[in-house]
Design a protein that fits this description.
The complex is a heterodimer.
Chain A lengths: L1 H10 L1 H6 L4 H16 L18 H17 L8 H23 L1 H4 L5 H4 L6 H34 L2 H32 L2 H29 L2 H5 L13 H6 L14 H17 L6 H9 L13 H10 L3 H16 L1 H11 L1 H12 L7 H11 L3 H17 L2 E2 L6 H5 L5 H32 L4 H20 L9 E2 L7 H21 L3 H24 L6
Parallel strand pairs in A: 1-2
Chain B lengths: L5 E10 L2 E11 L4 E5 L6 H8 L7 E6 L2 E2 L4 H7 E4 L11 H11 L4 H14 L15 H13 L5 E5 L7 H16 L3 E5 L3 H7 L2 E6 L2 E6 L1 H8 L3 H13 L3 H8 L5
Parallel strand pairs in B: 3-8, 3-9, 6-7, 7-8
Antiparallel strand pairs in B: 1-2, 1-4, 4-5, 9-10
The chains are: A mainly alpha, B alpha/beta.
Chain lengths: ~550, ~260
């Protein structure tokens, strides 16, 4: 697919030339990027058993897109006019693609790996920017295709051929529009913000998107008034005309004699053309040097030494060997400073507080008092869900802790006289549990106890101890990868392993739920589980793994 | 008589059937500075990685301080300090944090790490940057950090793979002095480089590698007696002899458009 799209892009060379972009340079950079992607890096040393990317992963992504696309088709079953349903469909379609662009493809736009190679060459900024835009488009296109297949099929089945033709015109324009909107956002932010503020904005933005998606998923079906949507007329509130999806959907009104929104379609087509025009000139100015700045090239002297006291005391208290301590401190620092690690972890974590709120907002019926809601939550045991969802976020973190952009720095582990790989794994677990898991559990458990009462203390303790045991078990029985030692592109675990993790967590949560009303039993289980977690840590530290 | 600290016997390594090292035999004594040179692709980095314990699968025998690296790789690694050619380090850490981490992996006490790191940072003019994250460091600054991390645990053998890469003239002087002083303190230096004049000045013995084989070794004087040339000329002569290179002809062809 990517090669076909590249050929199409090459065939469009008169357009690139016409808008002032050197097609030879453009295709040269683009072909290199496609080639580099094919050559996935292998891990350092001991590399004979390098992990392989699952051959099914692309098909799984396609399947997810097809399912999502099928859900979007439900919009057409609403009893509204075609203009409104296409507008809503395009809004959702563009939102999914936009989210994907922000979450998965931001790295392509801001990639700084090749700046020292490309920037010194006489390549104009607009070629650098456009090579990245087109590369993102190639990546986005297959997603857009699978997402739109159900809708296209539905149109072929349900509507006359003219409407099918219009849809085929509108869908790629919608994909291009959302691509340029995201790029506009980043390039403008790059231009007007300092590099430090931009990096912070990037992280926050991605986190907010994750929170928003999950919140929409959780609350959407509960709070959307379907009666209201059935009577929706998007032509009426004029502020809705600001939505690009409406502009594109208005093409379905062109044939309608009494339409007052048909002319919006000119805007729909003109908007991406305007953004393309801006990207070849104004927006591209200084893009290459700004990306280089994001990579970091200015060295400043420190005003004050970094604080070492508390974490050194903590590591001395909980770690039994110097190797364990070194890993404990390294993992803590990397988690606190690495933007890539934060971007991996916090989106998974943010679903926990959202689910926490969801439980209280969706329990009971209208008119219930807070005390009645609390009684319902206690009776159903739904307060246990966020506690085990927290575990899921941490299992994912443990799975990803071996991945890093600067994975080559892990040579130092291989060159050091480390007697037991278990020491490294114990250092990782202790750091994650003590510096991340327990503080978050304390907050979450504290909130649950404050709202629902002190009788939940034993439940929080049991869930915490069981979660720590499951984290230890996960590490104990998985291949022991050195932390931050694998390139981010390497996929370690199959889809089925992830499902297994989920099933185990659900089973443990269910078992906990089954005994929740027997307070004494919960207390006994909590104490036993805490003791077991200490023993588990000890056993983990002693285990001889093979280095990977 | 001194016991050798490094003994290589018939050391061989192949990748996918392609031989990289062919039955190397080399004995190194404590306090020696070995200049390990050879053209690109000769197998220098592979030798260095085997010595540092990064490559574990090879044929032949490698004894460090009388211990086989295959039998007890940890004991061997504890005796070795390694400075890699590519400055790969955790860039989000500061130099001090990195030293604490590496020192920890070698089992050093914190006070020892702090004392040694502070002194070396001062010697390398990096004191002002001791608490600055390394993501903004130049290549030379990173190289200095790697060198300090390599000697922090007071190894018996220091393996330096292109240690002067990216360093300024003052830093080169400091490194040369460091190498000499470490050798007078009984440390063995395995110095791998392309910069011939530095190798010539600091090395007690030079080992020339070509296509995975040692084609010449000896003190600079011994090699000069044999060929009567500087190290650079010697390097050129020996490697050309064995490869039958006609680089001047090739260069003339390559440069014909440049008149």
């Amino acid at each position: 697919m990517e090669e076909i799209l590249f050929k199409i892009i090459q065939a469009l060379h008169p357009i690139w030339r016409a808008i002032g972009i050197n097609p030879t340079q453009l295709f040269h950079i683009l072909s290199l990027k496609l080639l580099l992607e094919k050559r996935t890096p292998k891990p350092l040393f001991y590399g004979e058993k390098a992990s392989k990317v699952s051959p099914y992963s692309h098909w799984l992504v396609a399947l997810v897109q097809l399912v999502l696309g099928s859900m979007l088709v439900l919009v057409f079953t609403l009893h509204v006019d075609l203009f409104t349903s296409v507008s809503i469909f395009l809004l959702l379609f563009m939102s999914i693609l936009g989210t994907s662009l922000v979450q998965d493809f931001t790295g392509i736009l801001l990639d700084s790996k090749d700046y020292s190679i490309i920037n010194p060459c006489p390549i104009p900024d607009n070629v650098i920017l456009w090579a990245r835009i087109l590369y993102m488009f190639i990546k986005l296109f297959s997603q857009a295709l699978f997402l739109s297949i159900p809708c296209i099929s539905y149109f072929i089945y349900q509507f006359p051929w003219q409407d099918c033709g219009l849809l085929l015109l509108v869908l790629p324009v919608a994909a291009v529009t959302v691509l340029f909107l995201v790029i506009l956002l980043y390039v403008v932010a790059l231009r007007f913000l300092s590099v430090a503020r931009f990096k912070k904005l990037l992280g926050t933005f991605q986190l907010l998107i994750s929170a928003l998606i999950f919140a929409l998923y959780m609350f959407g079906s509960h709070f959307i008034a379907w009666e209201f949507i059935a009577e929706l007329n998007l032509k009426e509130p004029h502020f809705m005309w600001l939505l690009p999806s409406l502009w594109l959907a208005s093409i379905f009104q062109v044939t309608s004699e009494a339409s007052d929104v048909a002319y919006l379609f000119i805007l729909g087509l003109g908007f991406p053309i305007l953004l393309m025009y801006l990207s070849r000139g104004y927006l591209a100015q200084g893009f290459g040097s700004k990306v280089a700045e994001v990579a970091g090239s200015v060295v400043k002297k420190a005003n004050r030494p970094s604080a070492v006291g508390a974490q050194f005391r903590l590591s001395a208290l909980v770690c039994s060997t110097k190797v364990e301590r070194a890993v404990f401190i390294l993992v803590g620092r990397m988690m606190a400073r690495s933007q890539a690690l934060k971007q991996q972890f916090y989106p998974n974590l943010v679903i926990v507080p959202i689910y926490f709120i969801y439980i209280f907002l969706t329990t009971g019926v209208e008119g219930y008092t807070m005390a009645e809601i609390a009684a319902h939550v206690l009776a159903k045991g739904s307060y246990l869900f966020p506690l085990y969802m927290l575990l899921l976020a941490f299992i994912t973190l443990l799975k990803n802790i071996s991945l890093a952009q600067d994975y080559k720095a892990s040579w130092v582990f291989y060159a050091a006289p480390i007697s037991s790989m278990g020491e490294i794994q114990a250092g990782v677990i202790k750091s994650i549990v003590l510096r991340l898991y327990l503080p978050i559990l304390l907050l979450l458990g504290g909130a649950l106890v404050a709202i629902l009462g002190v009788q939940l203390v034993n439940d929080v303790l049991l869930a915490g101890a069981l979660s720590i045991i499951l984290m230890i078990v996960k590490v104990y029985y998985s291949p022991a990868y050195i932390p931050f030692s694998q390139p981010a592109e390497v996929l370690h675990e199959s889809f089925f392993k992830n499902i297994t993790h989920l099933i185990v967590i659900i089973c443990v949560g269910r078992a906990h739920s089954a005994i929740k009303d027997n307070e004494s039993l919960v207390w006994i289980c909590a104490l036993v589980a805490m003791a077991a977690s200490f023993i588990g840590l000890h056993l983990l530290a002693k285990k001889q793994f093979n280095k990977h | 008589m001194k016991q050798p600290i490094v003994v290589m016997r018939n050391l061989s390594k192949s990748y996918d059937g392609l031989p990289i090292l062919k039955e190397l035999n080399l004995t190194i004594y404590p306090g020696e500075i070995i200049g390990y040179i050879g053209p690109n692709g000769a197998g220098k980095s592979t030798t260095v990685k085997i010595l540092a314990g990064l490559i574990t699968e090879f044929q032949g025998e490698l004894l460090i301080n009388g211990i086989s690296i295959k039998d007890d790789p940890l004991a061997v690694k504890a005796e070795i300090g390694y400075v890699p050619e590519l400055a790969a380090l955790y860039e989000v850490l500061t130099p001090n944090e990195y030293f604490m981490f590496v020192g920890g992996l070698h089992g050093l006490d914190e006070e020892v790490i702090i004392r040694r790191a502070t002194n070396f940072l001062q010697a390398f003019s990096l004191s002002d940057y001791a608490d600055v994250p390394m993501d903004t460091f130049s290549k030379g600054m990173r190289q200095k950090v790697l060198i300090i991390a390599g000697i922090l645990h007071n190894p018996k053998i220091l393996i330096l793979d292109e240690p002067l890469s990216g360093l300024d003239a003052n830093a080169v002087i400091v490194i040369k002095e460091l190498i000499t002083q470490l050798a007078t303190r009984g440390k063995t230096i395995f110095y791998c480089s392309h910069i011939m004049d530095v190798v010539e000045k600091v090395s007690d013995r030079i080992v020339l590698l070509q296509a995975g084989e040692i084609i010449a070794q000896g003190t600079m004087e011994e090699l000069k007696q044999r060929e009567g040339q500087s190290l650079e000329q010697l390097f050129s002569t020996l490697t050309q002899e064995s490869q039958q290179l006609t680089y001047q002809q090739d260069l003339n062809i390559a440069l014909q458009d440049f008149n």
